[in-house]
What we know:
heterodimer, A: 255 residues, Rossmann fold, four-stranded antiparallel beta sheet, 10 helices, B: 337 residues, mainly alpha, ABC transporter involved in vitamin B12 uptake, BtuC, two-stranded antiparallel ribbon
Amino acid sequence: xxxxxxxxxxxxxxxxxxxxxxxxxxxxxxxxxxxxxxxxxxxxxxxxxxxxxxxxxxxxxxxxxxxxxxxxxxxxxxxxxxxxxxxxxxxxxxxxxxxxxxxxxxxxxxxxxxxxxxxxxxxxxxxxxxxxxxxxxxxxxxxxxxxxxxxxxxxxxxxxxxxxxxxxxxxxxxxxxxxxxxxxxxxxxxxxxxxxxxxxxxxxxxxxxxxxxxxxxxxxxxxxxxxxxxxxxxxxxxxxxxxxxxxxxxxxxxx
Amino acid sequence: xxxxxxxxxxxxxxxxxxxxxxxxxxxxxxxxxxxxxxxxxxxxxxxxxxxxxxxxxxxxxxxxxxxxxxxxxxxxxxxxxxxxxxxxxxxxxxxxxxxxxxxxxxxxxxxxxxxxxxxxxxxxxxxxxxxxxxxxxxxxxxxxxxxxxxxxxxxxxxxxxxxxxxxxxxxxxxxxxxxxxxxxxxxxxxxxxxxxxxxxxxxxxxxxxxxxxxxxxxxxxxxxxxxxxxxxxxxxxxxxxxxxxxxxxxxxxxxxxxxxxxxxxxxxxxxxxxxxxxxxxxxxxxxxxxxxxxxxxxxxxxxxxxxxxxxxxxxxxxxxxxxxxxxxxxxxxxxxx
Lengths: 255, 337
């Protein structure tokens, strides 16, 4: 069974076709990329996979389950986690709380336990706290556990967002432009981090990225879309030499 | 050690209040001010769940309070007293001590259910639009009560005072003071536990970024229902106590002015600060009493204060911090959870 299957998905907003006939299949363990010029519909794909949009046509199957009727938090509970293009952390909570909240679907206790502070609550909270610290330590963020994300530099905020995504123990991690707004040293670190996460957590990573060096050095398979249509896919080498891709990015040269 | 500080302080306060009321050291007026303080603490801290922690703007709090005021009043009159409408008492007045808290609970449950009136629309709407829905719900409750003549309609409803008298007949103690004290402590404690658990922090995540909350695993619809029901249920509790302290309720008391009063308390104290809600409820009650001789001018001064507050300290007295955040050293002396 495939981990993620997108079957001829089309997404229409009003009269605008944001995505047309999009197909994809992940068997698990990949580190793949999705690129395309601005407004090509990349983030729409991620919003569809994480359940924030429901496809106008077509199906999205995650671990064999049709996600069309599932709310986003249910899809997250199934194992999809994502980061956002413009960082969406809960800026007035501590970093630690941000990480803990990613476990909201797998708390292991309910409202009554929380109010009565039962044994089950104590045990579950201790476990959540413990695994949150583990994640922070793994991503070298433990020093900032009690800081508020808004006070952290941008690069660290990205890292916190990735940590939050990992905290829910996903099997598919969607990274929406992880390198956006980072300087070149941060980008070096990010490439190493993503590679390390991919190996260490044994998950599937799918990333949208504009920085070609990031995509080309990390991804094994890249899909290119433009105006909602898939224009190419293949290995980094194939993509770099594909005339359609060059045309989409640079124009057709008939100046 | 610090685990016992709060219970000991509360027990001392409780013993002091009851002792002084019983011994006649504080007169009935002061007693009633203290009781309204307790009720106001319940109201402001429960509204803080929605307006502060969850970041929605609910103006319907007085409506839920009205539900909580009418339901236990009707229950206690029906069960305990001989009434023109409900007929003779169903249960013997000696049971008042058991029946009264159950009536209060009934009111809280009814108010929590009324909270659904706002919770369900909140799935799809927020901000100003939700605020309008909450105002509508306030008027739905108010007009419903005004139009049921069996419970007095706009004239109001009375008779629940006898439930209090019956309790005092069984054991001679200032019972309303006791119940208010218990309910106030219960409310603050429950809210504290709620918002400090990872479960309850889901509503803080909704305030800070609802989209991120929904996508990063918070069931936002469910958390909204929980928050609205908890908030309105506690408002109902306050309503039941309010009705029994006064011995008389009328729908006019639960209008937009009451809602405004509660909101002033929340914003004065600071959104998302339980300490702030408690402090501002105490302050506000004292202030309102102190300005009683000014009569109608009071309603010029209070809004003026609000304007000044919003101008110079928009985050309220405490911001979104608790006492232990401002004085971290206090943590050595007490813990509250």
